[in-house]
Input
Amino acid sequence: MDQPTSYIRSSHTLDRIVIEIQDGTSLSLIDVGSGPALIILPGWSQTVSAWEEQIAHLSKRNRVIALDHRGHGESGEPGHGYRVSRLAADLKEVLEALDLDTVTFLAHSMGCSIVWSYLELYGSSQVSRLILADQSVTLTATNASDPYQRLETGGVFTFDQLGRLIDDLRSRKGDLATRETLRSMVSAELPMRVFEQLVADNMLLPRERAAALLTDHAFHDWSDVVRRIDKPTLVIGGKQSVVPWQAMASIGTMIPSSRTVIFDGPGSTHFAFLEIAKAFSAAVDEFLDSYPVYPR
Output
């Protein structure tokens, strides 16, 4: 299937601001509400548009900042920097531009890897709390023959599987590969209009850039960083997710001050924040209530 030349853009109901960082890239973000700062970091090839329901809910009690990563959504698309460490550096520049001295990160999928890279590079002095949703410490199984190792680490790809996906993203099959990957991450009950919007938002990141970013993202193992996390942390997984729930439970055991929520039943997919939004919001609310912070 040929890659279409254009896709519909999502219609955003929340106002945006743009921050130009040092390398000239314009980063688009939503900044709404008041109270302790909470930053939403979407996953690989995702945009903040899927988070509008969570933003509306969380901004009743927080200053919510939701960031489109470089090349994603409404942010600028430079020809460089599609690495997790560069996205962590972008995040650092956003915090500095907004003069934020204490933040809570709510990260989903690759957004968690960006947080882990941020912690490794810059430390946790500006971080008050972490919410880590459905990202294993590594994506690639180093011992594909050991099913227990795959469950514990969450290595959802073998090297061969990952190589084929990256090749497809770079080819004329890029749109089909994207659609099939997303379909594996959601339930059959997700309304088709919501799924199509998810696909459209993903395609705003050119597939060549998506392939480059996935190549970098997939080969990290963040276990050593996760074990050093010293902030209150909520770990979220789902029984129907492509990310094994056992891998999320394992992360919970690595972090001393953590609690783990594993959703079960319909909608407990990789996109639980979208499919079972109220249950996701309730888990986040309970965690934030348990570890309150106040703006300095």
In short: The CA atoms of residues 25 and 141 lie 34 Å apart. The radius of gyration is 18 Å. The mean pLDDT is 90. The longest strand covers residues 26-32.
